[in-house]
Structures are given as structure tokens and as C-alpha cells.
Amino acid sequence: MRGSAYSRPGCAPGATSPAARPLGRYLRSPAGANLFLLHPNSEAVACRPERRAPGLAPFAKRGKTVIRLPIYMDHHATTPCDPRVVEAMLPHFTETFGNPASKNHVFGWRAEEAVERARAQVAALVGATPREIVFTSGATEGANLMLKGAARYHRSRGDHIVTVVTEHPAVLDVAAALEREGFRVTRLPVDGEGLLDLADVERALTERTTVVSVMWVNNEIGVVQPIAEIGRLCRARGILFAVDAAQAVGKLPVDARAASVDLLAVSGHKLYGPKGVGAVYVRSGQPRVRLTPEIDGGGHERGLRSGTLNVPGIVGLGAACEIAGRELAAESRRLLELRERLRRGLLARVPDLRVNGSLERRVPGNLNISFARIDGEALLMALREVALSSGSACASAAPEPSPVIRALGVGEDLAHSSLRFGLGRGNTEEEVDYVVDLVAENVPRLRAMASGAARRAAD
Ligand SMILES: Cc1ncc(COP(=O)(O)O)c(C=O)c1O
To answer: Is this model's pTM higher than 0.85 or not?
Structure first.
């Protein structure tokens, strides 16, 4: 690129200058020949070499297109905060900094107004009324409140909890903790597509069951469970139905009331909002949902979650929900096209792949693939220009193969070789094509290396 209008001293060409930034996600050179893709974290990557992974170039070229590296394709682990969300949050750090619990002055009233606006925005996205929303620090706290809260409150009525083997640790670890307290836990299997069989759910329910916990969307394979059907089964028996919807809200239409859900956990940072904030939907009306709170203190959030409210975070969560609701349909179509481009590209160019999980019942931005005869960690290293995951982010330090992939009936070797591609708002067709090229170049090379090593070991 000849035009230096977009470069800064010390920055690689194409880095955003303040003057160029308003042009949006794409920058064209003055001649219109080169296309520069702007990723949300591109400035840090382009301008701060010390932050870059060793040996990583800041840009790659595909034909006339320059792509900023690294590419973020791990939107299930977290999402960048949408700049519109940040803008909405900013005044609440310095101007409207009041405590919403301060009832005697305008600083408190303004903060309370902001919180109540956010409560309505969150409620609107999940089919709830504002009164049914309790703010938390995220979906992990949400799962603790839903499961421990419901199980402990109803202990005199029953001691049995039902969940699923493919749940996130935020639920599975809570279930295990409750087991240590003396509760009985049934963990249901899934089929080869990662989906629950309703007959299994029905069979598991007993007179002593008080809570059923099923995630709406799986964080590794993106499959969508039959939530409304399970909700109906639970409602008919007076059993509370808790749903971890961290990977669902903002990615597909969620209507908690219509799906007969009693409790539902949301996480801000999974939908382009801030980290450390979330919400739980607690259904109102009859029969009443009763919970034992996890955090006691000043009685905030109708006594269900004490502690001074994180006003900027809550405002950010509200703004993220409003944006998600407005853009969900168009964004889903766009992500589905990108996902299919990625899937078709990989299937056409790389032999011996296995797509993990149902393709029909799946959120648009997820693709999980096992690459036969390769170790997933080795592949991740080879693809280090792309931020991907070899399992759930929370568990990726563990050397064990993903329990979610194992639950599909996949052998240990294939489970070890699975990668999760998480497409999101920042990704483009050019990035997808680049990733396909990179995988297609590296997989045969790694397979050849692995078979060479195996031959040498056998000699
Ligand atoms: C399905 C699911 N549930 C719960 C969580 C935990 O959410 P948070 O980070 O808000 O605690 C995550 C995050 O990885 C998730 O993917």
C-alpha cells in the first residue's frame, strides 16, 4: 500500500489512525486497491509488538487483502465489549456514580434509574418482566444461585437434582458440591449429536426431584437442547427448571416464559458486554419460585443477591442486550454464512474430519471439528495466528480430552484432536478463508510428522 494516510510512526501500515478510524471496519487505500480489515483489538496487535506472540507477524496478505493478525475466533470464551456498550457505560464511572441504594439524593436516583433501564433491557431480551431480573457477577454466580438456591430451599421436599453430562463446570461443579452436602444427582447422557433424549429426562424425574438444570446452548459444540419440551415436563410435575443460557442469549431468540423456564442465567461478556456482570431470571407468579440466597448482606435485589450494584457493568449488560435484540436476526444470518463457508472450506480441503454435534440444532457461530491423527494442542500451536480453543476455555489447562466430545461417543484420540471455532461479530469472510488456508496447510504436515514419529518408534 502506497498511501501512508493510515500509518503512524512505529506502527505497521494499515494501523488505524484516529482520523481513519471512523471509516469503520474496512479501510481502503486511496487507490481503492487494498482492503484492510480492522479487528476490535487490532491496534494493540499492530502497535505494541511486545504484546504479540513471539514470531507472529502483524499482518498477512491474501491476494490484495491484508488481514490483521492474530484473528480472534474464540467468541464462546469471551467477546470484545461492543464500543457502543463502552460508550453507554462511561458516564456511570464518573458522572452518575451514585449508589442506587442511596434513596435520599439525586446521585442515587440517577444510578437507580440507569439500573432499572438496564433491567428492562435484559428482561426484554429473555422474555421476562423487569421484576424477574436479578443482577449477578456472571453466569457462574447465576448457576450457583439457581441450583444451590433452589436445592437448599426445597430440601425438606426432596433431595434429587437432574442435570446433563455435557453441562459447563459452572453447573457440574455446583452439582458435585451439592452431592457432597448429601443431595443425589442424576447426570443424563446425550446422544451422538450432543442432544438430550426427552424420554431419558422423563425417566429421571422422581417424587424427590426438586430441580432440573439443562444448558440452552452448549459452549463447546454449540448444540441447542429441547428447552421448551423439558420445561413442559418439569412444569407438569412442579419441578423447578433452571437453564444456563450463557451461550444462548444474544445468539438465538430466548423466551424464558414461553419455554416454561423458572430460572435462567445470563453472562455479560458472552454477548459483547462487560465481564463480571450477569443476570438471573427468576420467574414470578404462581407457583412461586423460592430460593435461598447465596450472598447475604443489605438485602439488595429483593434479598436474592446482596451487595452494592455494579452500575457501569449493569448498564453495559443492558446496552449489550438491547443491541443483541436489535441485531440478532441479521447477525445470525451473517454468522451462519460464515460458519458454512468455514465448514465447507475445511471439508473440501482437509480429509478425515469429523464435525462434532448436530448441525441442524446448533447456534450459527459454532463449529467443532476433530482432525483425525493429530493432537489438538499441536494443531493449536501450529495455528497460533488464530485464537481458537481445544475445549472449554475454563478446562483447557487440563490434559484430559474434552468430556463433552467424549460424551458424544467419540474415541479418546479424536476427542484429543478437537478444535472449537467460535465465530462472532468481528469476523469476516476474508478471515474465514485465511483460517481455511492455514488449517489446510498445517494438517497434512502435522499428520506426516505424527506418522513419521510413529514409524520411527516402531522401528
Ligand atoms: C455455558 C456457560 N455457562 C457458564 C459460563 C460461566 O460464565 P461467567 O464467565 O459469566 O461466569 C460460561 C463461560 O464460559 C459458559 O460458557
So the answer is: yes
